[in-house]
Specification:
The complex is a heterodimer of chains A (20) and B (254). Helices cover 40% and strands 0% of the residues of chain A. Chain A contains one helix and no strands. Chain B starts with 10 loop residues before the first helix and ends with a helix. The relative contact order of chain B is 0.16. Classes of the chains: A mainly alpha (20), B mainly alpha (254). At the A-B interface, helix 1 of A face helix 4, helix 5 and helix 11 of B.
Chain lengths: 20, 254
């Protein structure tokens, strides 16, 4: 999990492309 | 055929899938058609090209890594909105994105590519291959441009592009998948939806096989990108470590 911390975060976030 | 393990899917289901995936694509495609039309088709002037060429190799690599990472963030959002993707186990979500996100960036590149001038929208204007000379990867850049040109020649609609992107992302033959069967089911459904939409759009029969050929071309581009990155990292380990976007490093093992 530590190795893919950012991907995990991106997958869990409910961001919209506007926020990217 | 009878041996085809494809799931039975109703036409209504396929239409629904087409709608969902197209909507996800349009919501996350980085540039809308209208924006693309309004974008000035301005190419970099010779002095601007030279200014990119005279950048230190590491600065150009860093700039491209940033641009690729931005595009990949949109692909991650696209993946999250594909029906069934978030139901896969986390390992498989990561595996599919690590292997497929750059491939989808290359697929999407045809939307911001101008075949006539052989240039791609990059850093505010349209850039030909010579802009990227400073990277020291002329062969890879030329293959990426050739790929974009040949994708453009298929004149895919946004629906078709959306479904092909999802098909690429949901590749069930990636190494290290834990629930391969689940991914296979999703990919088969996506392929049926792609076939359905190609048929509905009255595309010639050859388009699907041409798209299948693109899958191996994409894999080759991505493995060559990894090779070039390894070679770059061997010379500039600190630049990669301290100046490259963390997401890029996670995805490409830098």
């Amino acid at each position: 999990k530590e190795k893919h911390k950012i991907l995990h975060q991106l997958l869990q976030n409910s961001t919209s492309p506007v926020d990217l | 055929s009878n041996r085809d393990p494809s799931p039975t899917v109703s036409l209504a289901e396929l239409d629904h899938l087409v709608q969902i995936i197209s909507k996800s694509h349009l919501e996350t495609c980085q540039y809308l058609r209208e924006e693309l039309q309004q974008m000035s088709r301005q190419n970099f002037q010779q002095d601007e090209v030279e200014s990119y060429q005279s950048k230190p190799r590491e600065a150009m690599w860093q700039l491209c890594a940033v641009k690729i990472t931005e595009a990949i963030q949109y692909v991650v959002e696209f993946a999250k909105r594909i029906d069934g993707f978030m139901d896969l186990c986390q390992n498989d979500q990561i595996v599919l994105l690590k292997a497929g996100s750059l491939e989808v960036v290359f697929v999407r590149m045809c939307r911001v590519f101008d075949s006539q001038s052989n240039s791609v929208y990059f850093d505010g204007k349209f850039a030909g291959p010579d802009v990227f000379k400073g990277l020291g990867c002329d062969d890879l850049i030329s293959s990426v441009f050739d790929f974009a040109k040949s994708m453009c020649s298929l004149h895919l609609t946004e629906d078709e592009l959306a479904l092909f992107s999802a098909f690429v992302l949901l590749s069930a033959d990636r190494s290290w998948l834990q629930e391969k069967l689940q991914v296979e089911k999703l990919q088969q459904k996506t392929q049926l939806a792609l076939q359905h939409v190609l048929q509905k759009n009255q595309r010639e029969h050859g388009v699907l096989s041409k798209l299948r050929c693109k899958v191996s071309a994409l894999r080759s581009l991505c493995s060559r990108h990894t090779e070039k990155l390894s070679a770059f990292r061997a010379v500039y380990p600190d630049i990669v470590q301290t100046h490259f976007p963390p997401l890029y490093k996670e995805l490409f093992g830098a």
